[in-house]
Amino acid sequence: QVQLVESGGGLVQPGGSLRLSCVASGSFYGINAMAWYRQAPGKQRELVARISESGSTIYADSVKGRFTISRDNAKYTVALEMNTLKPEDTAVYYCNVFAWYTSWTDYWGQGTQVTVSS
């Protein structure tokens, strides 16, 4: 099983920055893709950014050029650097990993709130 713990959320003014971090622990034999999703009130959960084991990345169009995803394979961590934040970035952000335990499975963190407001 994989446990994910996120940190770094909070309240920030428009134009500000935040860095989210997520660390994976538990019993697993490997992690493939790592990603960040978000869910705003009344909306479906959406992919924000994903990074492969080799470092290839994809981003939602709404965050391209503002957000950067990175990972440390040795430490089983994934981070999301968020710059030039906008009110529409307000959401609960979830860490997601695709890991092998007895099979390849998606695992989710508990979520961290990001609020962009003046």
Key structural traits:
118 residues, globular, mainly beta
Helical region count? 0
Largest sheet, in brief, is: 7 strands, mixed
* Distance linking N and C termini: 40 Å
- Share of helical residues: under 10%
How do the SSEs run, as a string of H and E?
EEEEEEEEEEE
**In percent, how much strand structure appears in the residues?**
over 45%
Stretches where pLDDT is under 50 for at least 5 consecutive residues are none
C-alpha Rg, in Å? Answer: 14 Å
Estimate the mean pLDDT confidence: 96
Q: Give the tally of β-strands.
A: 11
Shape: globular
SS-derived structural category: mainly beta
Written description of the protein model:
- The chain has 118 residues and is mainly beta.
- 0% of the residues lie in helices and 58% in strands.
- The chain contains no helices and eleven strands.
- The strands form two sheets. Strands 2, 4, 5, 6, 9, 10 and 11 form a seven-stranded mixed beta sheet that branches. Strands 1-3-8-7 form a four-stranded antiparallel beta sheet, with no helix packed on it.
- The mean pLDDT is 96.
Brief characterization of the structure:
With 118 residues, the chain is an all-beta fold. Helices cover 0% and strands 58% of the residues.
